[in-house]
């Protein structure tokens, strides 16, 4: 009778309650993708030259002329060239990006001039090319020339906020619950997102964006835990991938809104209100039963189970003792008293991941995978707008190629194995980076295709590292291992913008660095044990023996096969 009750309790109807919670939660993850990549159009630096003290009547380039400086932007292809302009008062000026020179003899308007001249600073501001965008933080606050480094710091400081947010809100979620953190961070994304649009100077912009990064990262970290605790074991791999997919949809929305809105603060407001429906309904999300159980709040768990039963049309009521047989029907007071009397559990720290040579090598390799995955992901994403062609379409494709990559990651993990999927795609990323470096820059279509392929391969590796890390470590340090790996991931995201800026030193420097890291990490991954079909380990000894255990099992199978073959050979014909 008891067995029949449990089967009825599980039910055959689809879990409508969990499905609604799941899709509502990952919908807000779209906003994380939006804010993480929004700066590619907020902090874009257009063509610019020093402004002049007067109205321009004529403009000269090396091989063309115009009456308006707005018409000269398309013809001005090299920043090393200068513009020659004549003002209404007859003065002739040579304009470069960061300086201006007034010709003393202005009788003949020619491009080449060898006479006396006086060089001045850009005290009248700058003239910007508004062909593709009306304004950005660069044009509003003149973040060019000696102030250009401020614009380049916009994305790294955001990623620094991502690092702090992951640490702070991940810990808070374990203390006060998942639901309050999701409430606060999702509301914070909307409020800080809108506030960014109305900042009055660069420094207030950076501060508010830093806070926006913290709450965005906090939500993304907690939502992984939240959906995992609400879906079944069989669906957890796909559930985590859907969160990644929602992030990719956010990247695609950035490209679409950037194409439609060319004023940065309006663009920021439009991006921030994209997920407003979730803010209205997020207050209805319940706490996860796993966290409530960990806090001994069994009555609330019973109420939550009753709500699930009504939503999922389960006829036979479920009892907490059926879902958690270890407690059976013990009163809450007895459970609490047992917890007090139970011996204290040893607290583990980061050094436990390096206790033995085997675990130290494993931790080093896994940390490199996290770092390289994040570095490659953001290098390919941020540099997509610099590939030539339509930068909005490039960024859209950069997000779109992630969707099939996560499907491939799921299929590969379940069929080929974790290591056997991760290592080849990391090595393939290195090969593609090498291919990008040998493609001539004139072949922009090939450059874009190769870059999108690189984003696809690094997306596969980046998508499966969460689950693989959890399976490589025992229960006692599993959260610590995933958390430390996530920290390396955030460090990679902080380094990525600087890596992209190295293209000013050499155009292929970002691909060289990502390719080298992917090659090194892929080679080290080949030495990690395979975890497909292996039970989760509980002790450090079991985790260290993962690879050896599989090797011994394979050796036994091979020996058994050899014995059978030998018997057949020795059998009389």
TrEMBL record:
GO terms, molecular function: transmembrane transporter activity
Subcellular location: Membrane
Major facilitator superfamily (MFS) profile domain residues: 74-533
Protein name: Solute carrier family 22 member 16
Gene expressing this chain: LOC115467337
Broad class of the protein's primary localization: membrane
UniProt KW keywords: Glycoprotein, Ion transport, Membrane, Transmembrane, Transmembrane helix, Transport
The keyword Transmembrane is annotated on this UniProt entry: yes
Membrane topology: Multi-pass membrane protein
Membrane-spanning residues: 21-44, 149-169, 181-200, 206-227, 239-259, 265-285, 364-380, 392-409, 421-439, 445-468, 480-503, 509-528
GO cellular component, one term: membrane
GO biological process: monoatomic ion transport
Family: Belongs to the major facilitator (TC 2.A.1) superfamily. Organic cation transporter (TC 2.A.1.19) family.
InterPro entries named in the record: MFS_dom, MFS_sugar_transport-like, MFS_trans_sf
CDD domains with a match to the protein in the record: MFS_SLC22A16_CT2
């Amino acid at each position: 009778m008891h067995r029949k009750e449990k089967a009825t309790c599980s039910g055959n109807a689809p879990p409508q309650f969990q499905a609604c919670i799941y899709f509502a939660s990952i919908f807000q993850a779209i906003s994380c993708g939006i804010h993480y990549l929004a700066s590619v159009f907020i902090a874009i630096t257009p063509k610019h030259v020093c402004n002049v003290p007067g109205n321009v009547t004529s403009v000269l380039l090396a091989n063309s002329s115009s009456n308006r400086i707005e018409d000269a932007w398309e013809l001005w292809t090299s920043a090393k060239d200068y513009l020659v302009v004549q003002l209404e008062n007859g003065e002739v000026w040579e304009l470069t990006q960061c300086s201006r020179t007034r010709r003393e003899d202005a009788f003949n308007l020619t491009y080449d001039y060898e006479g006396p001249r006086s060089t001045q600073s850009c005290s009248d501001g700058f003239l910007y090319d508004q062909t593709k965008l009306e304004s950005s933080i660069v044009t509003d606050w003149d973040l060019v020339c000696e102030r250009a480094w401020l614009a380049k710091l916009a994305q790294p400081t955001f990623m620094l906020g991502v690092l702090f947010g992951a640490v702070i809100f991940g810990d808070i979620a374990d203390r006060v619950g998942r639901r309050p953190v999701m409430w606060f961070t999702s509301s914070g994304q909307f409020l800080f997102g809108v506030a960014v649009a109305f900042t009055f100077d660069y420094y207030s912009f950076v501060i508010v964006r830093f806070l926006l990064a913290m709450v965005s990262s906090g939500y993304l970290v907690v939502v992984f835990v939240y959906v995992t605790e609400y879906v079944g074991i069989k669906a957890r791999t796909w559930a985590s991938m859907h969160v990644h997919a929602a992030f990719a949809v956010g990247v695609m929305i950035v490209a679409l809104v950037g194409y439609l809105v060319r004023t940065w603060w309006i663009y920021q407001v439009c991006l921030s209100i994209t997920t407003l429906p979730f803010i209205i309904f997020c207050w209805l999300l319940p706490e996860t039963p796993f966290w409530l159980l960990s806090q001994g709040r069994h009555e609330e768990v019973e109420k939550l189970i009753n709500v699930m039963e009504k939503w999922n049309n389960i006829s036979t009521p479920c009892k907490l003792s059926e879902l958690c047989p270890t407690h059976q029907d013990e009163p809450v007071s007895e459970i609490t008293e047992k917890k007090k009397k139970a011996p204290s559990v040893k607290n583990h720290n980061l050094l436990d991941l390096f206790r033995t040579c085997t675990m130290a090598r494993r931790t080093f390799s896994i940390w490199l995978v996290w770092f390289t995955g994040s570095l490659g992901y953001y290098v390919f994403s941020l540099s997509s707008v610099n590939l030539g062609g339509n930068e909005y379409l490039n960024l859209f494709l950069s997000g779109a190629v992630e969707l099939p990559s996560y499907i491939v990651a799921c299929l590969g993990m379940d069929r080929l194995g974790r290591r056997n999927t991760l290592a080849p795609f990391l090595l393939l990323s290195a090969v593609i980076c090498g291919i990008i470096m040998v493609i001539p820059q004139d072949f922009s279509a090939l450059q874009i295709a190769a870059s999108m392929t690189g984003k696809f391969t690094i997306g596969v590796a980046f998508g499966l590292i969460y689950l693989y890390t959890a399976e490589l470590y025992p229960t006692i340090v599993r959260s610590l291992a995933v958390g430390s790996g996530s920290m390396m991931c955030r460090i990679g995201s902080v380094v990525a913008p600087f890596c992209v800026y190295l293209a000013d030193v050499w155009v292929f420097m970002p691909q060289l660095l990502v390719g080298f890291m992917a090659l090194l990490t892929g080679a080290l991954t080949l030495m990690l044990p395979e975890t497909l079909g292996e039970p989760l380990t509980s002790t450090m000894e079991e985790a260290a023996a993962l690879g050896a255990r599989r090797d011994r099992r394979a050796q036994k199978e091979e020996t058994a096969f050899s014995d059978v073959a030998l018997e057949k050979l020795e059998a009389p014909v």
